[in-house]
Amino acid sequence: MSDNEVLIRCENVGKKFCRDLKSSLWYAVKDSARDLVGVNRDNSNPELRPYEFWANRDINFELRRGDCLGLVGRNGAGKTTLLKMLNGLIKPDTGSIEMSGRVAAMIALGAGFNPVLTARENVYINGSILGLSKKQTDDRFDEIIDFSNLHKFVDAPVRTFSSGMYVRLGFSIAAVMFKPDVLLLDEVIAVGDRDFRIKCMERVSQMLTTSAVIFVSHQSSLVARVCTQAVLMENGTPKFFGSPRDVISKYEDTSTELSTQFTTIETLDTPSCKLDAHELPFGGSLRLSIALDSKTHFSGLILRVHIVDSSGESIAEWDSRNHDYPIDISVGSNEFDVVLSDLRLSFGEYYISFSINDADEVRYLVTGAKCCRFSSLAKHYGVCKVQL
Question: Domain spanning 258-376: which superfamily?
């Protein structure tokens, strides 16, 4: 297989789903019957039937060895559906998908693991499924456990594992044992801790010399670091292809009826501080003011405020639902004040990010990434765990 060979090719790929269960079952029976009797369906531009909608449409791209494509977009944009079609879990309704070489996918945590068996037993079962002999698995076993750092839990049933431990084991098997030509990653790395995410990103960078990677993440810093190209997905359709930074910029700037006018931050303990010069004492408080202009009335929205460290990791989240703070937006100017109290942060620099999304948590209406900066004056270092 040549280094320049196309490993993933999608041509006019589309997938539709049905919102109504009974109609979905009836459509499935009719389509299966047509397939059995050899009646060809129109695969170029099929009509939507009642209750159907397009989850993906007009997907066209090629990836070669060494390419890493980042899929960026709001929840419900069709990113996971696309990965499932690429992995063969679901069949596209239009177009074609061509995959070359060995494919590894991490789309669901713990997929393929037997929860009753231990980590050791699951490693050997996965090796057998991949066609490796026991000796070949033996040769890779120590490296898998070293990479996952699960030495103390190697003989524990995986049903006792946390989501982060599932990710450690699953990614280690895919990266060390399998050495795939195509690797599909859907947000799962974000579940692991910071050190493991860094290790995963370093391994993905190494794998790019021999693999093509498709990477889904809401963490812009990870997409910018590892991806060679990116695509912004909206309503199941690719809206913008480009460099990771250009696509991330488009994603963060996109808003529908809402626009952010200004965001200010005030340290309540030292209110005279200027913007970008805030110094917060250990256990101090911040007041964040967000002003929005809207062309439409919204009610029942969700406001989230994140404290982000210098590496881009969110270490604390404030959620309006947990504070009986209704987010209703009227036509015209709106302003919201949020007070973050008793912030016991380790020494260092931090940023404030926020997002507003609808009550169903399907789409983001507006986001503000790293809109304000402040410094913690704590004189000690340590693990920072903040509950807002």
Answer: abc- transporter (atp binding component) like domain (2.70.50.60)
pLDDT at residue 15, as a whole number: 93
pTM listed for this prediction? 0.62
CATH superfamily of 6-253: P-loop containing nucleotide triphosphate hydrolases (3.40.50.300)
Which residues of the chain carry a pLDDT beneath 70? 1-3, 39-45, 108-112, 188-193, 253-278, 359-365, 367, 369, 378-388
Amino acid at residue number 328: D
